[in-house]
Amino acid sequence: MKIIIYLDILLLVNFLTGYLLLCAAGHLAGSETSGLRLLAGGLAAAAASLLILFPPLPVPLQLMSKALVGAFVVRTAFSWRGWRMFGRQTAWFLLLNLIAAGSCLLLSLRCGIPGLQVNNLTVYLNLPPMLLLGCILAVYGIVRTLLFLFGAPRPAEIWQLRVSLEPGRTLSLPLLHDTGFFLKDPYSGAQAVLVEYAPCAGQLPPDLRACLEGCFYQEQWPEPPPGRAIRILECRTASGRRLLPALCVKDAALSRQHQTIRPGELTIVFSPEHSMGGRFCGLFGTDLLTSRPATRKGEDGRWISVG
Length: 307
Hints:
The protein is built from eight helices and 13 strands. It is of the alpha+beta class.
C-alpha cells in the first residue's frame, strides 16, 4: 500500500516532539539550557526525520546514523559540559525517543490504525497529528510526574576558589564540583583543581602568565619564574591526555554560600582548552571537600568548624 507523507506535518510534529523530548532529557540528566538552544535542537530533530525519505540503508549504517543524529540533536540543544554529561543527555534522549515510538506503535496496534511504515529506523504512523502529539505530551507528563514524586537531579554545585598569589593579587574563579574528578598531585599528594587558562589570565602576575603561555604555545617549555612552584603534570582533558603546567599554592579557600573549605596546599592545573561553558571555568573533585574540615562563619564573625 502506498503511503503519502506530508512534509509540513512531518517536520512540524517532529519539531514539537524533539523539543518536548529534549526538555524531558534535560530534566532527567540534570542539565540546564536556554530556550533558544532547545528550539535549535527541535529544528535539528525535525530535519533528522527526513531520513525516512532516504533509500533503505544497511542495518549497521542505520544504527550509526541514528546514533549520530541523536548525538547531533543533543549537542545542538545543550552546551558542552564534558563527555560524561553529553553521554547522559544523549542516552536519555534516545531512550525517551524509544518510549515515545513504542507508545505510538502500541496505540496503532491496539486501535487498528493502518499506515505503519518503518525506514532507516524512523517510524511513520498515519496518525492524526494531535493524537501523536498527545502521546509525546503523555511521555513528557510522566517524566515531570516522576521528577515531582522522586525529586529532580541535584543542580550543579558551583564553588568559588580564592587564592592569594602575592600581596595585593588574588585569583578568584568559579569551579564546578565534579564527582568524577580524581586528579591529585603525584609529587606532593595534594589535591588538584583543573582550570581554564583564558578566563583567569588577567588575574595572574605577568611573570606567571608569560610562563604559562610559553608552556602552551612554545615547543620548548620555559624556565619557571623565581619563587613560583610550577611543575608539569599529565592530565586527561576533553581532547585526551596531555602534559599541562601546574602551580602549587598554600593560601587557598573554596567557598559556597556560608561554607568554606581551606585545603592548605593545593595544586592548580591550567589548561588552554575552552570546554566548560560560561557558568564555571574549572573542576574539582569530592576529595577536596573531605580532605579538610569545613568551616563557616559564626555570629561573632570568626570561622568555626562544622565537620
